[in-house]
Amino acid sequence: MPLLSYLLHLGDDALILGHRNSEWCGHGPVLEQDIALTNIALDLIGQARLFYQYAAEVKGDGATEDSLAYLRDVYDFRNCLLVEQPNGDWAHTILRQFLFSAYQYELYKALRESRDAQVSAIAVKSLKEVTYHLRWSGEWVVRLGDGTSESRRRMARALEDLWMFTGELFRPAPFEEVLALGAGVTVEALEEPWKAHIRRVFDEAGLDMPQTPAFQAGGKTGAHSEYLGHILADLQFMQRAYPGCNW
Amino acid sequence: MTAEWPLWEVFIRSKQGLDHKHVGSLHAADAAMAVENARDVYTRRQEGVSIWVVESRYIHASDPGDADSLFDPASDKIYRHPTFYQLPPEVKNI
């Protein structure tokens, strides 16, 4: 069912990036940034919950937001590859957030006009959060890109590692194609405004737009990198070890 | 981190409040980051609708050691309080 796949895709993107960010909790470079990133993690996990709650309703059959988050296996996840990439150093985490937030910003802006009232409502609510994520991460990209030679080197390295995963965001999965004119949006159309925003920030940061092809894809159809299995082992441990446990 | 970021004092205005109140301090590299850090650290539970930050080194304080000479002299000047004065009954409002 395309709508179910689509809701899971939107929820999985948010959950997996939220989880990645939460791995920084207690390890941030300074207390204030530790809290900033944890706030973003919580925003994303909150968005995931909204999509999962709706998905559970669509799926029926006793599904809940918890069963969707904790009891699906790697191949059932529909998140893009970008969000499951490892945290690396601060530059990697910041850049991953920036590239994704810029996409999510355009996506939610467009989804406000979704023909599905619930998707549209979630987009309206989440857009406010994402607007801040984009601002916060963009300022960090400038700070690091235009900072010391060390920060610049690290940012350039992060860009080299992550850029290849951005193409997938704008290449529609089958369920996105089906829903493009209904509940969903035409993701191809988001690429230009996304690039314009990235370019603006990169200009300020003194970073060059990569010319390399962003060829990595597969996450949206369940072909994930080796990392997702490890994420799920951590994320789902309690429900797997103690089925139905509650707290 | 080789150099410590400077310290900033944070002032928040709550929804009902008319004035910004001092809520605490934090570290940040520049003013923009200080405002964002303040947002993330001090307004997570809807504490405010407006933020001011000022670098701590720009705040000049009175010396606690001078407290006796600065503040104690006011303690016996009760005539400085409006309640000290008795209003004639003809005066309805002041």
Strand-helix topology:
The complex is a heterodimer of chains A (247) and B (94).
Chain A: H1 2-22, H2 31-59, H3 65-70, H4 81-84, H5 90-111, H6 117-145, H7 149-162, H8 174-179, H9 191-205, H10 226-235, H11 237-241
Chain B: E1 7-13, E2 21-27, H1 31-42, E3 50-55, H2 67-71
Antiparallel strand pairs in B: 1-2, 1-3
Question: Could you walk me through the main structural features you see in this protein, from its secondary elements to its overall organization?
Answer:
The complex is a heterodimer of chains A (247) and B (94). Chain A has helices at 2-22, 31-59, 65-70, 81-84, 90-111, 117-145, 149-162, 174-179, 191-205, 226-235, 237-241. Chain A has 247 residues and is mainly α. Chain A has a single domain, classed as Ferritin, core subunit, four-helix bundle (Ferritin, Up-down Bundle). In chain A, helix 1 (2-22) runs antiparallel to helix 2 and helix 2 (31-59) runs antiparallel to helix 6. In chain A, 43% of the residues are buried. Chain B has 94 residues and is of the alpha+beta class. Chain B has a single domain, classed as Ubiquitin-like (UB roll) (Roll), CATH 3.10.20. Chain B has 2 helices and 3 strands. Chain B has a 3-stranded antiparallel β-sheet, covered by helices on one side. The mean pLDDT of chain B is 91. Chains A and B meet through helix 2 and helix 6 of A and helix 1 of B.
What order do the helices and strands of chain B follow?
A: EEHEH
Q: Any guess at the CATH architecture of chain A?
A: Up-down Bundle
Order of helices and strands of chain A: HHHHHHHHHHH
Radius of gyration of chain A from the CA trace?
A: 17 Å
Please describe the biggest sheet of chain B, giving its number of strands, its sense, and whether it closes into a barrel: 3 strands, antiparallel
CATH class of chain B: Alpha Beta
Number of domains of chain B: 1
**How helical, in percent, are the residues of chain B?**
10-25%
CATH topology of chain B: Ubiquitin-like (UB roll)
CATH homologous superfamily designation of chain A: Ferritin, core subunit, four-helix bundle
Q: Strand share of the residues of chain A?
A: under 5%
- Taking the alpha carbons of the first and last residues of chain A, their distance comes to 32 Å
**What Rg of chain B do the Cα atoms give?**
21 Å
Instruction: Identify the CATH architecture of chain B.
Output: Roll
Tell me how many strands of chain B there are: 3
Shape of chain A: globular
Mean of the pLDDT scores of chain A?
Answer: 96
